[in-house]
Amino acid sequence: MSNAHIKKMFPGALTSQGFYSFYHYMIQQNANQIFVLKGGPGVGKSTFMKKIGQTMLDLGYDIEYHCCSSDNNSIDGVVIPNFKIALLDGTAPHIVDPKNPGAVDEIVNLGEYWDEALIKQSKQEIISCNAKINGYFQKAYFALQEAKIALEEWKSYTKPYQDWTKINQMTLRIEKEIFISAPKALGNERHLFAWAHTPQGKTEFIDTLLYDTDTLYMLIGQPGIGKSTFLARIAERASIYGLDVQYYHNTLDPAMLDLIILPEPRIAFVINSEPYSYTPKFDGKIITLNFEQSLNVAQLMEDCGGELQDCQHRVNQHITRARKHSEKAKATHDLLETYYVPAMNFSDIEKKLNSILQRILAFEEQPAVAPMTTIYP
Fold first, then answer.
1. Burial status of residue 167 (CB atoms within 10 A of its CB: 0-12, 13-18, 19 or more)
2. Mean of pLDDT values over 50-59
3. What pLDDT does 374 receive?
4. CB–CB of 192/262 below 8 Å?
5. Which strand (E) or helix (H) includes residue 88?
6. Contact 254, 361 (CB under 8 A)
7. Pick the residue with more confidence: 187 or 151?
8. In this predicted model, which residue has the larger pLDDT, 105 or 90?
9. Exposure string (b/e) for 319-353, b if CB count within 10 Å is 16 or more?
């Protein structure tokens, strides 16, 4: 059995700002090859990438699955770090065009393998499905906007009751504990999502991302008392020290952080808090940082207890609304695929897959480097 490891993350997400993409951080700048898959729904892009990924896993190579936030059964990309190779879904809403066509990037058009005349027989149904999908996603974005408003109101109640001097002191103490080597050259950074609002609800694969981590700092406490700001400060200091930093942004508000990973000291910091509570299955050392220890909880509850309860209810209510619209979008997308699947020549697609797989295997394995830097500005 292979000892290869799978990491799962989200390169894009449904957020309060609409669909938010970090696609340009999926693979490092000095990639050997990037295959950009084009084609409509149901043409087999996700299956194509999964088969490549599974083959590389079976051969003992680590891979990254970049999961689709709007379809639990699909992926938006697969990265093979040891080969510095990626396959990406380049269709809407995460449109990717070649940056270095021919030299590094190559378009694989699976639309070449369909019967266009057969698809045109369902023209009106396809147009109708696409319009409905766009409508459902727009409603999901509206729901997440309302969830963010309720969360910001929640934070407005808690912030005045926090002892920020103690939070600053704790931040300085942690910095002294982990940054003990001399600063070096500027490190790389990578931005993705650890969570997503999927048709199945709030989804994360954080445990897979901690595979190379020895120590996990767990940040607990309700919203608005400094956890995400703490992560940003630690990440900034790590960058000053020349360390690589992996940023995992909040799926409701991408300006905030849920998780940062520092690969070189093998340390990670994760938020475990409503509305995105995370229970780790982690074999390493866990250090809990309780941000409520410096919060005047008794006075907060006396002054604002009812408002806090109302905010928490509204946050979860609107996130649930977004999930229901996402479910409808997925169901309609599944229907849309039925108009394409019968028109596909999957036998020829399989031949194309095998051809690309042989090309991947022909690359000499490179030293494993975490995919960090931007390809597409």
1. buried
2. 96
3. 37
4. no
5. strand 85-89
6. no
7. 151
8. 90
9. bebbbebbbbbbebbebbbebbeebbeeeebeebb
